[in-house]
Amino acid sequence: VPETGSFSRQYKQEPFEQAPMYVAVMTYLGFGIVTLFGYFRDFLRAVGLEKCHLAQEREEQKDFVPLYQDFENFYTRNLYMRVRDNWNRPVCSLPGPVFDLMERVSDDYNWTFRFTGRTLHNVINMGSYNYLGFAENAAESLKTVADTTLQYGVGVCSTRHEIGNLSIHQELEELVASFLGVESSMTFGMGFATNSMNIPALVGKGCLILSDELNHTSLILGADCLRTIRVFKHNNMHSLEKMLREAVYSGQPRTHRPWKKILIMVEGIYSMEGSVVRLAEIVALKKKYKAYLYLDEAHSIGAVGPSGRGVTELFGVNPADVDVMMGTFTKSFGAAGGYIAGRKELVDYLRVHSHSAVYATALSPPVTEQILRAMKCIMGKDGSTEGIRRIRQLAENTRYFRARLKEMGFIIYGNDHSPVVPILLYMPGKVVAFAREMLERKIGVVVVGFPATPITEARARFCLSAGHTRALLDQVLHHLNEVGDNLCLKFSRRKHQLTNPTRSDETDS
Question: What are the Aminotransferase class I/classII large domain coordinates in residue numbering (predicted)?
Fold first, then answer.
């Protein structure tokens, strides 16, 4: 694990290797072909020659107002439905390093599914955000969570402002503030809503939001309350500074009055690219232009830093330099919900003005207990070194897995410290074939394509965990190597050499 601040001195912009030109051409050609066949199938449906009638609108609904755009409907019925067996697979066990899947088949080209009654056992889980492996059936943890459930119940059926404010909620908020090194924090029952429902309370008329182009949907939704949003290129400090300089110089449109507030919104680790925010440089720009910084650490808290305290620790940045620290408990902590942390004045303001604080039900007591146990383990407050061991194991797994993939010749995105590892697949047919081939080899993966990604950047996203053993990773890598050869997925033209990826080149802490 790199020592605090050393990462900032050695940080380099993540290289996003481009595929050969023929790959882009074949990708567009593939989408073009399936689109043409889609129009042809729509014609067959119109003349009554299509056997499957589930894609046709029912007579009693033809005068209804459309819920979706025409192209969205077209894409769903003609492209997505053909391959949707690769998504939403039902899990019937604990989603740890390995899990069980319910087998299902379709008799109508994926319009409907039926279960066979069989179970796929011991599928290696490479898709869950279980970074520190706390999605587990540890006996001691189960007992304390069960005791909490007996004492408080499953839910409080009230907001924090009424009768839903429990002692364990206050204990958790104090622990989160201590863990992050800030004055205060508050928790929420849903990670997505922590962004989407709190950002509107932080900005208003006369404010400007500068948002990274790859920010999560929850950030974008929260920022949509404000019309004055400008998007800068991903992790591009020149683009950000240009917008900051223009905002300070020109002020608001038409009136040219100074902006009341300029808020920069970034993520710690970007969940689709695996890239790490250039935090030290952003903090410097924020101070230079007197802006505010909103940092979403949903994927980075617990997963990076010598003691799991996220990108502020990784870069050696003072947490006080980040105005709004946001994170979720759904990844590294094996639970649910999210938090906002920072100065006491900020948290006190949000307790009164945040929709998520005023109207939402308080965090479930057993979930709160799970977060408390996981965080105490990470901090060593349980009297063990298990938390640090997990953090170091995750870092080791990340370095090893990324180095092996590069050696094999795959194009991967992201930073070497990021446990989110995207492998670029590009072509729609290869995306589908890859997911099916991996499942046949009892490896569960997440594949993502257009419109969630640009047309030419479809990918498989692997999420590493401290729960993955070296034997499990080697098994996955072995099958990846075979599938990569069979499907011709090794597009990288760079030469990589595997050089002892199990240890960091930086000082261990």
Answer: 122-480
- Distance (Å, rounded) from C-alpha 423 to C-alpha 19? 12
Could you tell me which residues are beta bridge partners of residue 125?
444
For residue 121, give the H/E element and its range.
strand 114-125
User: Per-residue pLDDT for the chain (509 aa), expressed as one digit of tens each?
Assistant: 556 555 655 566 666 888 889 999 999 999 999 999 999 988 988 888 877 777 777 777 777 877 767 788 888 888 899 999 999 999 999 999 999 999 999 998 899 999 999 999 999 999 999 999 998 888 788 888 999 999 999 999 999 989 999 999 999 999 999 999 999 999 999 999 999 999 999 999 999 999 999 999 999 999 998 878 999 999 999 999 999 999 999 999 989 999 999 999 999 999 999 999 999 999 999 999 999 999 999 999 999 999 999 999 999 999 999 999 999 999 999 999 999 999 999 999 999 999 999 999 999 999 999 999 999 999 999 999 999 999 999 999 999 999 999 999 999 999 999 999 999 999 999 999 999 999 999 999 999 998 888 989 999 999 999 999 999 999 999 999 999 999 999 999 886 655 555 544 433 43
Residue span(s) of the chain under CATH 3.40.640.10 come to 139-379
SS3 of 99-115: EEEEEEECCCCCCCCEE
Instruction: Tell me how far apart the alpha carbons of residues 411 and 429 are, in angstroms, rounded to a whole number.
Output: 17
Quickly tell me which residue has 């894409």 as its tokens: 75
Cα–Cα distance for residue pair 233/236, rounded to 1 Å: 5
Residue among 328, 340, 273, 338 at smallest CA distance from 300 = 328
* 504 neighbors 395 (Cβ within 8 angstroms): yes
Structure tokens, 211: 């948002």
Residue 339 tokens, joined: 């938090």
Cα(245)–Cα(263) distance, integer angstroms: 14
Contact between 14 and 275 under an 8 Å Cβ cutoff? The reply is yes
Which residues are within 8 A (CB) of 70 and not within 5 positions of it... i.e. 6 or more apart? none
Residue with tokens 């308080």: 362
CA distance 398 to 299: 14
Q: Where are the alpha helices (DSSP H) in 184-269?
A: 191-196, 199-202, 217-223, 237-250
424 C-beta neighbours (distance < 10 Å), count? 23
What is the CATH number assigned to the segment(s) 139-379? 3.40.640.10
- Is the Cβ–Cβ distance between 336 and 167 less than 8 Å? no
In the 8-state DSSP scheme, what is residue 160?
Answer: T
For residue 143, give every residue at least 6 positions away whose Cβ sits within 8 Å of its Cβ, in sequence order, or none.
Answer: none
The C-alpha atoms of residue 58 and residue 353 are separated, in whole angstroms, by 45
Q: Give the tokens for residue 445.
A: 């993966």
